[in-house]
Amino acid sequence: MVLAQQDEIWYMRRLVNLHKMKRPIGKIIVNIDLCKDCRLCIEFCPNGVLEESKDVNFKGYHYPVVKPGKELDCVACRMCEKICPDFAITVVSEEYITYDKYYGVSRHAHGG
């Protein structure tokens, strides 16, 4: 019953065509050798995309990696790139994803 109520709320609050609205997908590129494990990129990522690696670079520092399952969560805001004091991160926005694909909602679900 609660699920049905949530579905109804979803239908009532859906104001845009999710199959038309797009957002960027960012690809985070880390220069592992430049990183010195300050963790600023991990702490300031608004979507929590990054985590500390288990491996270390040649200096002995852990470097950031994309969390498993979070590959599509980067919106290319470039916060990690801007905040990195060592210029070890580059963000590239090469493609876009529609919101219905991101959220797993079919085009015709909920009366769309």
Describe the structure.
This protein has 112 residues and is of the alpha+beta class. The chain has a single domain, classed as 2-Layer Sandwich (Alpha-Beta Plaits). It contains four helices and four strands, in the order αβαββαβα. Strands 1-4 form a two-stranded antiparallel ribbon. The protein has a two-stranded antiparallel sheet with strand order 2-3. A hairpin with a 5-residue loop joins strand 2 (50-56) and strand 3. The longest helix is centred in the first third of the chain and has 12 residues, at 2-13. The protein is elongated.
Brief write-up:
With 112 residues, the chain is an alpha+beta fold. The chain has a single domain (2-111), classed as Alpha-Beta Plaits. It has four helices and four strands, in the order αβαββαβα.
Protein traits:
112 residues; alpha+beta; Alpha-Beta Plaits; two-stranded antiparallel sheet; 4 helices; 28% strand
